[in-house]
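#struct-help
A.M.: can someone run this one for me? Single chain, 150 residues.
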Amino acid sequence: MEIQELTVAEEKQKVVRQILEGLPEWFGIAEAREEYIAQSAGQPCFAAMEQGKPIGFLCLKETGRDTMELAGVDRKSHCRGCGRALFAAAKKYAAQTGYSFLQVKTVQMGRYKEYDDTNRFYQSLGFKELEVFPSLWDEWNPCQIYIMAI
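D.P.: on it. C-alpha cells below:
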C-alpha cells in the first residue's frame, strides 16, 4: 500500500467517487454523495493505493482558522493500516500548513456497531471527545465530534 497526495481536482473527484460509489449503504443519498465529491476538488486529499487502485481516501476541510476536519473512507481495508497511514499523512500536512487542531465527526458511540468501531479507531489515534450534537444530522444519528491538538 502506498499513500499519495492528490493534487489535481479531477483526480481527487475520481478517487472519491470510486470509493463512495462502492459504499452505497453509507453513501446512498445521491445529492449528499455528489456534494462530498464536488467539495473534494478544492481540499487537500490523500489516497491509499494498492496495485495502482485506490482503496481509501482522506480529505481535509478547513473549519476554522486553526482547525481542519478529516473526511475519508477506507471501510473495505479495515485492520490493514490504511486508515492510520492516511491519517498520518493528513496530520503531517495539517501541521506543516500551520493548523493547530484536527476534528472529525461520526455517529455517537453506542448507536451502531460499525460506528462504534469507527469511534474506537479515532480514540486509538488520540482523538478526544468534544461534544455530541443530538440533532445536527437527525435523531437516529447523533453527531459525535472528536478533536486533537497537533
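A.M.: thanks! The mean pLDDT is 90.
D.P.: also worth noting: The first strand starts at residue 2 and ends at 6.
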